[in-house]
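Sample entry was shown:

___
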Amino acid sequence: NEGQQLEALFAVQGIVTDVSLAPFSQFRSPISANQAKHLRQSISLTGYGLQAFKIAVQNIMELYARFARLMPKKSTLRPADFITTRSNALGEDESTIDFSNRFFTLRKHATTDILPIQKELDPFDRLSNARKHKYEYTEDNEIRIMEAKSKDNEWKFKKIKSSEIAVGDIVEVQVNFTLIPLGNNEYGLKAIFREVARFDNTLAMVSRVSIIDRATVLINLQKAAVKAQVRRARTVKENAPKPLKRIIAYTEEEEDDEALLRVKNVKLTNNEDGVWAGPSTALN
């Protein structure tokens, strides 16, 4: 029925390939209405051989199939465009998942509390201008950014700055999957970015991820780093100008150097047999 909305909460573990979080450096003047409408925070994950990521992709596709079966008659569900196959830093084709969330909500559509924009998200006060255009920063727009540490066989979480999430980090992302109408009897499944937890800036993962799995990721990341160094060296060599005779000026001593259907708090994850389980809640 129209007016209902269905949501599922997922925890997805993977390696960051791209990230865009506030504060946003592109704004040199107060934000416009069009910029406020399209401004998003986003993160992209891949696996580099991480089994937990492969299972997450499988579970998301199964969720997509379940949503497809919920479609009203004569309606279709578009393919999930947030899962793509890309060439990773090793030159191998691998699934990548893109998650994003709008930074603002149109005031008349806000269904959760309006929040103040903290200085760390908007140090030059460029985003607050969105209120003049009837856009608000709400609880639905907030991204919680955490660090996870294991202590006494228990995971602890603390808030960290957005700048501490970087490409190459192993993270767990909490997302909602929402079905929205697109017109012409078509619907889209959107992956809404809610939270991200960095695993102690190390390869420490949850207990069900094996040591072998972690070792595979480490080896692949090391290979990727080596390939990147080789590419950089080759580029420098190819673009290097012809050498000029050096004139020494100093002696050595002197030289200086809008949603449709929702069911809340459902988390589809996997146990050690790869079977998904739920319900669950987000990180806290």
Notes: The chain has one domain: 7-236+258-272. The mean pLDDT is 75. The two ends are 32 Å apart (CA to CA).
